[in-house]
Please model this.
Amino acid sequence: MPDVSPLRPEDPRRLGNYRLDGRLGVGGQGIVFRGAGASGGPVAVKLLHARLDDTSARRAFAREIEAVRRVAPFCTAQVLDADLDGDRPYIVSEYVDGPSLREHVTAAGPRTGGDLDRIAVGTATALAAIHRAGVVHRDFKPGNVLLGSDGLRVVDFGISRLADATATTGNPVGTPAYIAPEQLEGRPAGPPADVFCWALTLVYAASGRHAYAGDTYAAVMARILYGTPDLGPLTGLLKDLVVACLAAEPADRPDAGQVLSALLDRSPTRPGPAPPGPVPPGPEGAVVDGPTERAGTGGRRRGRARVVALVASLAVLVAVGVAAGVAWVLKDREPGRLDGTWTGAARYPSAGRVFPVEIRLASPARMRWGADLHCSGRLTPASGPGDVLVLTLDQVKGDACYPGSVSITWRGESAADFEVTRAGEQDARYSGSLTRTN
Model:
């Protein structure tokens, strides 16, 4: 059950057609009450602190509410009603009968195993749907993730902004502990700011602590800008994704859809993701050093190590077409049966990097890999005895991208393992798993 406190003497007992019977919480722009409508069922009513005397402000809120209504209903508390014209403007939304993630972790402890995976997938799904509707939440945190009996919901769009609205600068908005560095610096904040806060929320779910814990808000904000996050017990794919999402620069973070794809595309043959290794520069030209260390002058950060790769864990393999050559290489198999697009993520142990790879077994055969798939090359058959296909990777394009050979070992018709060896460097290898996507 959500934590409901009694109404205070100064609180209204009724707003419009809604009778109020308790407080659910206080946000940056209003107080949230539990109420009941004409049907008698519970609703959440948010009374805004400020009066919307300005016509443009009312219109902005109205546009925002309409945008929120476009968000998929399975992952958010839906807006049911609103009155922005009166002396006490309010917004009415669906009531979610369940504790917040913050309350749940406080009461039951950090989440682990499948429970943590479900939180990661559920929150990433909600965030992807929110951004797809053109909304930036801007206050994504454990307290705004509700664990209802029918599933997880993300709530409190009171301080969200439309993604296509004029960029917001100036004083940062949102809970100081769950806020992106660009917001703290007064820079424009868009969907990448929500992704940053998604990562902080997942760290909290796994450890019960903030990734940039401090004794005061000022200390927390300083550590967000200049410090190194404590990722607690996170390992494997979840840790990779969190590190990627905590990149210093918004452009270096994956988007919510990519995060969700990475969570869903993990190989079904493995019990869990492999832990990441150390992180020197890899052959694809990206430099990663675990959590980004930040330092700056005049309030601006200069990340000495840019977290790029792990957009990587998100894996999207696109390119290896082999056309007629495939039928020849796969002479012991039904011709064309394994043609198509294979996607996955590569791990480069000696460099400690993870990055996406895309292979297309069709005409022409191509492979793309590296941070943002910036490397590309042609694939031509070299050999293919039994269940192994060996391809030559050449005509490579991209900064710090290298030719070599690609070995693919089939595991049925929808899964495979691969290994890439750089030309002339037997010890320079990276490998991973592939899933057939079409």
Confidence is low (pLDDT under 50) at residues 158-171, 267-336. Residues 64 and 162 are 6 Å apart (CA to CA).
